[in-house]
Structures are given as structure tokens and as C-alpha cells.
Design a protein that fits this description.
The structure is a single chain. The chain is mostly helical. It has four domains: 88 residues, Serine Threonine Protein Phosphatase 5, Tetratricopeptide repeat (Alpha Horseshoe); 81 residues, no CATH class; 124 residues, Tetratricopeptide repeat domain (Serine Threonine Protein Phosphatase 5, Tetratricopeptide repeat, Alpha Horseshoe); 92 residues, Serine Threonine Protein Phosphatase 5, Tetratricopeptide repeat (Alpha Horseshoe), CATH 1.25.40. Helix content is 75%, strand content 0%. α16 runs parallel beside α18, α18 runs antiparallel to α19 and α21 packs antiparallel against α22. The radius of gyration is 31 Å and the shape is globular.
């Protein structure tokens, strides 16, 4: 999808940095991680030090299982700003995936210290600590006992007598226990690997075929080395999965997943924060992929579950409920049920106001305005969106918001206000060099100037919009815009002839 000619002929990428970033984000949500990496890589050729782009590409690498490149990008995002919390979190995630739980814990703690309100860091600390305990054991679980062979501490004459019968029995008992542990370990490995355990057994069987292992692949690699590498990989992943989540926890989580929508269930999952984060991600993924009904059902089910929890279990329960109301509202918008969507987004706004959460309030106002605009209540949409303006943080959000307010004013035939907001949208789009929004804002200004009778200005902005449409290769926009300046020129010529006569 990316148009990059940098390696062929030394040409620059054809589009802008924000465009490639948006493209990468869209591909990431679709699960097309390799293509997303290509888009982010192209974006980095335009802005080589952009830390947000490094973090975004690092996420893709993690999804692809390339932990080393994920770690490199995370470290690159921290090169100029050691306290960049997104980079710290991504580095911790990469280290965790690589099995470096102790180092991951360090960076989770650093991020938590900088942004204690973020659940991601709290969740990271919990899972890293659990993984460390699973791999080396908890200090409280270690008990020192006076068992085993203590002959070293006995007097010289007692050692000379040889091993007592009791020690021989002890050794036999320990050998038996060791054999039982081996059997249990095999059973654990089988559970962890699942269907892959059969593959592991098959590979081990192949190793016993001496004639086969002496053979070579077309590339010259020995079959024996290839098989051993595969077995080693499976052993490594088994150890990682065992450390990350022990069998009893996997079984417990599986059973909880089967029962989680049961209304009679009173106890929350072992890790409510993880449950909420994963659920919100699933809900958003379903909506992004076009499955609004699935997203709505999932969000409602999760809301029923969270409603049954106390604030002791979920300290930020109101914030979570607000997010779920927002998810339900967005799904209802896609399904066309605007009245219910508006109700849920207003509940999101109420909770955000109660908890004094500026980001959540901005989100709710954004969505309420969208609903009002969709049902033709442009005055209410303007009121809500103008309340949102002080909460806006990025230029991209500004250009969108000013454009939407301007469109509402244009619908109300308040053309001066429409032009003013169009100009503000255009200025914000110019600030980030976003060609798509430069096109949209230019059209809005041109239409407003046309309604105000400022034909020269209108033609000028339509021409600028046409230039942007050509760059974006937007045929529909080009066809629509090209008809307007010629029509205006005819009007101007007619007026000129009338004034002369």
C-alpha cells in the first residue's frame, strides 16, 4: 500500500508522514502487521526520529513474533527522551516476550512511576512478578529442612563406617520421586504444547533415524541440525509458557472464560485489570473489522460482568464503565440506532465528569457531537463540539473538529462562521502537512466563500483543493471540484459583461 521509491531512483515517498502513520495504524487494526511495518518504515524515512512511529512499528514486530526488532524500535523511541512512557512500556513488553522478566519488571516500574494512573504498567508489574516467581520460585515457598545426606557434618569415625541403611532408603525414595516428577513434567509439557506435542514427539523419533539425520537440505543445512533447532525452539517456548502462565492458571482461566457470561457467577477473574483490557481490545477489534453486532454483544456482556464487581476489585470502576458505554454507543451508531447511542455516550460523559477525566470527557463530547450531526441536530452538535475544543491535544484532532463544526455551520447557512472554522481547520492541517484534511478544509472554505459571494477567494480555494485531490489521486473529488471553478468563471464573466453594458 505504501508508495516508496526511495530505493529505486532515490525518489522520496509520494505521500506525507501522517498519511503513512494513519495507513500503518489501519493495517495494524486489521491484523496485517507486515504491511503495517512497511507503512511505518516509510513514515520513518520522512521523520527518522519520530518516537511514536518507532513504538507503533515495535508493536507490529511483537505481533509478528519478532521480539528483537521490537526491542530495537522501543529503544530507538527512548533515544532522545528516556522518560517517554510509551517507549518504556513497549520496551518492557518486548523484554517480557523475550523471557527477560527481571529487566521487563524494571521498565514496568519506571513507567508506573511516571504514569501511575495507567493500568498497563500495573498489569505489567503483576505479570512480570508472576513470571519471575514461576521460573525461580517465591522466597516464601523455600523451606530449609534437615533432610538428606548430612554425612559431611558428621564426625570422622562415623563417615568411615560407610553409608547407613537409612540413607540408602532415602536415596531410593528420592530416585522414585524424581521419576514421578519426570512423568509429571512430560504431562505438563504435553498440556503446554497442545497439538505441538505430537510434532515434538515426531521430531524426536526422526532423530533416531541415523540414515535420515545424515542427509542435507538443498541449501546445504544438515537435517540433524534442523531437527535439533526445532526441538530446542519447542523446549524454549514450553519453558516460557510455563513461566508466563502455569498449567493451573491456564486451566483456571479456561474455565473462567467458559463461565464468564454466567449471570450467577459472583467472583471476578484472578486479574480483573487484564480481563478488562483484553475485553476492550476485543470489542474495538470487532467494531473496526465491521462486526458492529458482535462488538455490541461483547460490550454488553462485559458491562454486566463489571457491574457485579465492587470498587475494591476494580478501583477505577466508573472509568471502566464509561469506556464500555462509549463502546456500546459507537456500535449502536454503526447499527443506526442513534437514540440509544446518544444515551450511552451521555452516560459516558456523566461518568467522565464525575471522575474528572479530561480524556474521557473529550471522547464523550466527540461522540455526542457525531450523533447530533448524524441526525441533523447541527446546533446541538456545534454546542457539544465547541465545549470539546479546550480538551483537544493534537493538531490532527483539531483539524477534524474545526472542519466538522464548520460543516454544521454551513448546514445552518451561517456561512461566515463556516468559513472561519474552515480556515482554522486548514491552518491545523497545514501545521501537520496532512493532505487529506487540507483537501477537506479547502473545500469547506471554498463553499463558504461561494455562499458569501466572495468568488475570487472561492475559486482560489477550490483550485487548492483540486491540487490536493490530484496528489491523493482522489478521482471522485477531482471530478466534483473541476466543475466548480469553470462554473464560477462563467458567473464572473457574466457579471463583468453586465457591468460593462
Amino acid at each position: 500500500m505504501s508508495d516508496v521509491d526511495g530505493d529505486q531512483g532515490g525518489q522520496r515517498p509520494k505521500s506525507t508522514f501522517p498519511t503513512y502513520m494513519a495507513e500503518g495504524e489501519q493495517l495494524y487494526h486489521k491484523g496485517e502487521y507486515l504491511k503495517a511495518v512497511e507503512s511505518y518504515s516509510t513514515a520513518l524515512t520522512l521523520q527518522p526520529d519520530d518516537k511514536n512511529c518507532f513504538v507503533a512499528r515495535s508493536k507490529c514486530y511483537l505481533k509478528m513474533g519478532d521480539s528483537e526488532n521490537a526491542l530495537k524500535d522501543a529503544e530507538a523511541s527512548l533515544k532522545e527522551d528516556k522518560e517517554f512512557f510509551k517507549g518504556l512500556y513497549q520496551k518492557a513488553e518486548a523484554l517480557y516476550t523475550m523471557g527477560d522478566f527481571e529487566f521487563a519488571l524494571v521498565f514496568y516500574h519506571r513507567g508506573h512511576k511516571l504514569r501511575p494512573e495507567l493500568q498497563e504498567f500495573r498489569l505489567g508489574i503483576q505479570k512480570a512478578q508472576e513470571a519471575i516467581e514461576n521460573s525461580v520460585g517465591s522466597p516464601s515457598s523455600v523451606k530449609l529442612e534437615n533432610k538428606g545426606d548430612l554425612s559431611f557434618f558428621r564426625k570422622g569415625e562415623e563417615v568411615k563406617k560407610g553409608l547407613p541403611v537409612s540413607i540408602i532408603h532415602t536415596l531410593r525414595r528420592e530416585q522414585k520421586q524424581q521419576n514421578q516428577k519426570t512423568t509429571k513434567s512430560e504431562r505438563t509439557t504435553k498440556q503446554l504444547l497442545g497439538e505441538l506435542y505430537t510434532d515434538k514427539e515426531y521430531l524426536e523419533k526422526l532423530l533416531k533415524d541415523e540414515d535420515l539425520v545424515k542427509g542435507k537440505m538443498r541449501g546445504g543445512e544438515r537435517l540433524q541440525d534442523l531437527i535439533l533447532n526445532c526441538i530446542t525452539y519447542l523446549d524454549t517456548r514450553t519453558e516460557f509458557w510455563h513461566q508466563q502462565r502455569p498449567i493451573y492458571a491456564r486451566e483456571r482461566d479456561r474455565k473462567l472464560m467458559q463461565q464468564k457470561w454466567n449471570k450467577s457467577r459472583q467472583s471476578p477473574p484472578s486479574d480483573p485489570a487484564r480481563f478488562v483490557l483484553e475485553s476492550l481490545e476485543d470489542i474495538d477489534t470487532a467494531l473496526t473489522s465491521g462486526n458492529a453486532e458482535g462488538s455490541l454483544k461483547n460490550a454488553r456482556d462485559v458491562m454486566k460482568t463489571v457491574q457485579g464487581w465492587s470498587e475494591k476489585v476494580v478501583p477505577n470502576k466508573k472509568e471502566v464503565m464509561g469506556s464500555l458505554h462509549s463502546c456500546i454507543g459507537n456500535a449502536l451508531i454503526d447499527l443506526g440506532d442513534m437514540d440509544k447511542a446518544l444515551d450511552h455516550h451521555q452516560k459516558d460523559l456523566e461518568l467522565a465528569t464525575q471522575c474528572k477525566l479530561s480524556d474521557a470527557k473529550s471522547r464523550a463530547l466527540d461522540n455526542i457531537g457525531r450523533v447530533y450531526a448524524r441526525i441533523g441536530k447541527f446546533t446541538q452538535a456545534i454546542e457539544v463540539w465547541e465545549e470539546k475544543i479546550p480538551l483537544v491535544r493534537s493538531d490532527l484532532e483539531k483539524t477534524w473538529l474545526f472542519h466538522e463544526i464548520g460543516r454544521c455551520y454551513l448546514e445552518l447557512r451561517r456561512h461566515t462562521e463556516a468559513r472561519d472554522y474552515g480556515c482554522r481547520s486548514l491552518a491545523a492541517a497545514d501545521e501537520i502537512a496532512d493532505e487529506k484534511w487540507q483537501l477537506n478544509a479547502s473545500v469547506l472554505v471554498a463553499q463558504s466563500e461561494l455562499k458569501l459571494g466572495n468568488f475570487n477567494s472561492s475559486v482560489s480555494h477550490f483550485e487548492r483543493a483540486l491540487d490536493r485531490a490530484k496528489v491523493l489521486q482522489d478521482d471522485f473529488a477531482m471530478d466534483a471540484i473541476q466543475k466548480v471553478p469553470s462554473l464560477l468563471s462563467s458567473v464572473l464573466l457574466g457579471r463583468l459583461i453586465s457591468s460593462i453594458s
